Amino acid sequence: MKPVATPYKAITCFCPGGRGQRVLEDLRKEMGINCAFVHHARGIGVGNVQEKKLFYIEREIITVLVPVDRADEIFRFLYFATGIDKPHAGMIVMEKTTRLMPIVEPVEL
Known about the structure:
Number of helices: 2
Organism: Sulfuricella denitrificans (strain DSM 22764 / NBRC 105220 / skB26)
Order of helices and strands: EHEEHE
Number of domains: 1
InterPro entries: N-reg_PII-like_a/b (IPR011322)
Shape: elongated
Distance between the termini: 19 Å
Strand content: 35-45%
CATH architecture: 2-Layer Sandwich
Protein name: Nitrogen regulatory protein P-II
Number of strands: 4
Helix content: 10-25%
CATH topology: Alpha-Beta Plaits
CATH class: Alpha Beta
């Protein structure tokens, strides 16, 4: 199978843990996007620079591959569906893709 020429963008969301699976289901049901996955990550940060107190945080990372013509629409959907619109809730980025192989559902004959 050859890579398709249709331009796509990759959207990556860093959101609080426990939201990823629900967001993927909503993305498929409401927006018709099924080329996405979620994984879990943990990290540490410095909460107070003077006292050097560390804190641990868990996030889920959602990565979605979308056609360029729907990228802004899907970006907006993910921004609100993941709760990133709230302060300190996460981050979302969108970037061009150079090579891709979209997931194609099998066709029943």
